[in-house]
Amino acid sequence: MKLPERLQEALSRMASAIDQLEAAGERLAMADRVRADLEDELAVMQDDRARLAVELDGSLARTRALALANDDARLAVERASASVRAVMEAAARDEDA
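RE: above sequence
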């Protein structure tokens, strides 16, 4: 039994619309998977950024501590050098006298 032409055209348009709807659903599902992957990557990058920020803060604190220790050591060496010079000058004066 042959369907009337108008009904056949309507069924054809409906099949085309269903195909388009399925294709749109597949594109949406793919976009959701891509978005989920991107969200996962973003979460990993945010975790890395937080870890790196903590490491940077620790490195900066160590740098400051080393700079202070360096200043302390420099002052101690300067004081020791001044003491050695003073002793050497006193010894030289004693020799001259």
